[in-house]
Design brief:
By secondary structure, the protein is an alpha/beta fold. It folds into 2 domains: about 80 residues, no CATH class; about 210 residues, Rossmann fold (3-Layer(aba) Sandwich). Helix content is about 40%, strand content about 20%. It is built from 10 helices and 9 strands. A 7-stranded mixed sheet has the order 5-4-3-6-7-8-9. It has a two-stranded antiparallel ribbon with strand order 1-2. A hairpin with a 2-residue loop joins strand 1 and strand 2. The longest helix is centred in the first third of the chain and has 27 residues. It binds S-adenosylmethionine. The site of S-adenosylmethionine has 25 residues, from strand 2, helix 8 and strand 4.
């Protein structure tokens, strides 16, 4: 369509730019020229809208039409219900990937699959609600993501195996050190009666508390402080999960664990990979330690 118009334009322009030359194929022009020569038109020729103007107008309309459609398409794609469906699909994919990773690391985990209750919780928690808005489209990738203040939300596979190895029971009371985004706390909250979570970076802790309350995780209580010392007033705990790398196992946390209780903690140098440990507490503050697999966490900070 446009080619035809431009061909036409070239023709008209050529015609109009050569005064005195009969304008082939342009009868209006020829008539006006004749009238001009006959003295009927004395003062110039009113500028006739050229086909450039017409073509521009039509292109304008076409562009507007295309832009309108694109805008409508974007509104449709980003509409809450379409996004929610997309996130549900991506979350299912994430769960499938975790299952595949568990199978691939079964020799470390000593199991081929995680507790179906844990996998259901992974499928239920809306991870996109726990990441900054510019990370939301990546929320269901099986990888850690930045959450600000130099911290990260852990990789979903790591959250799943740490939760599974704690063997959370419906009536358990669990302590988490390192609230971060609140995601791990939310996963635990789907599975146990009470979750207590401590974060050392105030803005992160406050943001997570608001988020958990908005998402109605009413069984999570949060606090700001150095989690190395645990939460004495709420001890003892059936399970403790530390989501930052410690140089050693904090004695206050062992004290606050019930006999028979389990703790998951990454231990090692803050600059190298650490070992994810499963600690089980026995009578008389004795512990047994099992190395699960090498991991990489942000460091457990504080003055301890
Ligand atoms: N569990 C978090 C989540 O689901 O988003 C991710 C935890 S992020 C890998 C580790 C968190 O531990 C950071 O938010 C960091 O500020 C926090 N942290 C580091 N040292 C801490 C300490 N001594 N007490 C409490 N929190 C600490």
């Amino acid at each position: 369509m446009f080619d035809a118009k431009f061909a036409d334009c070239r023709h008209m322009t050529d015609t109009l730019n050569i005064p005195g030359t009969p304008g082939p194929g342009n009868s209006t022009f020829s008539r006006r020229r004749r009238e001009h020569e006959d003295g009927k038109i004395l003062v110039g020729i009113l500028r006739k809208p050229t086909c450039f103007d017409n073509a521009n107008k039509e292109m304008d309309l076409t562009y507007r039409f295309v832009y309108m459609w694109l805008a409508m398409l974007c509104c449709w794609f980003y509409s809450p219900s379409i996004l929610a469906d997309e996130y549900t699909r991506e979350r299912q994919q994430m769960v499938d990937e975790i299952e595949a990773d568990v199978r691939a690391t079964s020799q470390y985990l000593r199991k081929e699959a995680l507790d179906p209750r844990v996998m259901k919780a992974m499928d239920q928690v809306l991870r996109h609600e726990f990441v900054p808005s510019d990370q939301q489209r990546l929320a269901y990738l099986n990888r850690p993501l930045p959450i600000g203040h130099g911290q990260t939300i852990s990789q979903p596979y790591i959250v799943a195996i740490m939760t599974d190895l704690l063997e959370p029971a419906p009536n358990s009371k669990v302590l988490e050190i390192g609230t971060g985004s609140g995601y791990q706390a939310a996963v635990l909250a789907e599975l146990v009666k009470e979750v207590y979570s401590i974060e050392i970076i105030r803005p992160l802790g406050e943001q997570a508390a608001d988020r958990l309350s908005r998402l109605r995780y009413d069984n999570v209580k949060t606090a700001i402080g150095d989690g190395y010392y645990g939460w004495e007033a709420r001890a003892p705990f059936d399970a403790i999960v530390v989501t930052a790398a410690a140089s050693h196992i904090p004695p206050p946390l062992i004290k606050q664990l019930k006999v028979g209780g389990r703790m998951m903690i990454p231990v090692g140098s803050r600059f190298l990979t650490q070992q994810l440990l499963l600690i089980t507490k026995e009578e008389g503050d004795k512990i047994t330690t099992r190395q699960i697999l090498p991991v990489r966490f942000v460091p457990l900070t504080g003055q301890h």
